[in-house]
Amino acid sequence: MKHDALLDKLSEFLMVEQCGWQLYRVVGSRATNPELVERYRHFEQETSRHRSILIGLIETLGGDPDYVSPTARVAQAKCEALLQSTLVAGPLSEDELQASDLENVVLAETKDHADWELLGQLAERLPKGKTRSAIEAAVAEVGPQEDEHVQWAQAKLTELDLQAVMTKSPPDPARLDRRVIEPELAIKAVHAAPMDRRNLLDAAKLPPAEPTPASRTAASG
Ligand SMILES: [Fe+2]
Ligand SMILES: [Fe+2]
After folding, report:
1. Minimal CA–CA distance to 101: which of 85, 121, 115, 114?
2. CA 46 to centroid of ligand 1, rounded, Å
């Protein structure tokens, strides 16, 4: 196994968890469906725990959790694009907004699930030892939660979209006249940024237009 390649992947997976955590904070802050509110809050807590587990795993394997690998930078760019899409909310009806936010959760959780699936399959192929044991312990806790995240999100999105198509009256056409951008959205407080051992770096408090340290590095590299 290529140890450095694994550490690069773990850096990427940590960024994906960071993205998921930020996304849950945004969509959770404006969800109105009680089931969505409860699930988003629960999954946000579990996703925060996944970040801590990955940080511990990186440290156990001799890596630096503050290192941002090239693929983690790309993951961050994708994350920022996903979060930016949540700003294009003005013309959406209430039901459309809930479904759009849930669709972003499906996208984020599909990648998140794939990451942990990879770690599980990797562990099966490794010889017995410290690396295998550390990955197995992480997957044992996180894997079942990732199954639940993506399965629930996909099923709920199908349910909401079916409801919208089959039973709801058409959204008000006047909604198309409303603003596309909502600058006051809470996204400013949870802008994508790398984090230190436990908390968001100061860059996380910058407005969305400001590049984060990781994206600045990517632009100049
Ligand atoms: Fe996760
Ligand atoms: Fe997840």
Report:
1. 85
2. 7
